[in-house]
Amino acid sequence: DIPEKYAILSHKWGAEEVTFKDLTDGTSKGKAGHGKIQFCAEQARRDGLQYFWVDTCCIDKSNAVELQEAINSMFRWYRDATKCYVYLPDVSRPRTNSADGFDKLWASTFQESEWFRRGWTLQELIAPASVDFFSTE
């Protein structure tokens, strides 16, 4: 069953993402991608949401039928989410004392994120009703 209200994570996959298998066998905490899942859980809790969905670990990629079904319904997952969290690990706060300088540097850094170079991000940007962007800071 799909929960009525949930958050969803939009992110660029890395080398050590947590998979469905990692969650079921208890090895997820040893992977670099665990931090994104922890971030999503904490942010969803702050937003009053009990559930969150992360593609890397919520889809059992060893099951071809489930994988194909998930790929075909990704737009719906993002559209039906209460909140979409875009995780940008390659964006950091500009170091400047000037407010005008900060805005220009921030816009430049933000727009250069790898997230904007992925094909999937268009649907992840336009489908949800609410999209919030987060850096690692």
Can you put this structure into words, describing what you see?
The chain is an alpha/beta fold and 137 residues long. The chain has one domain (7-135). Helix content is 42%, strand content 12%. It has helices at residues 20-25, 34-46, 55-58, 64-72, 74-80, 99-111, 121-126, and strands at 7-10, 52-53, 83-88, 131-135. The N and C termini lie far apart (34 Å).
- Please indicate the percent range of residues in DSSP E strands (runs of 2 or more): 5-15%
Instruction: Look at the helices and sheets and give the structural class.
Output: alpha/beta
* Number of helical segments with 4 or more residues: 7
Largest sheet, spatial ordering of strands: 2-1-3-4
Spatial separation of the terminal alpha carbons: 34 Å
Helicity, in percent?
40-55%
Number of strands: 4
What general form does the structure show? Answer: globular
Order of helices and strands: EHHEHHHEHHE
Query: What count of structural domains?
Result: 1
Mean pLDDT, as a whole number?
87
Report the sheet with the most strands, covering strand number, pairing sense and barrel closure. Answer: 4 strands, parallel
* Estimated radius of gyration: 16 Å
pLDDT < 50 runs, ≥5 residues: none
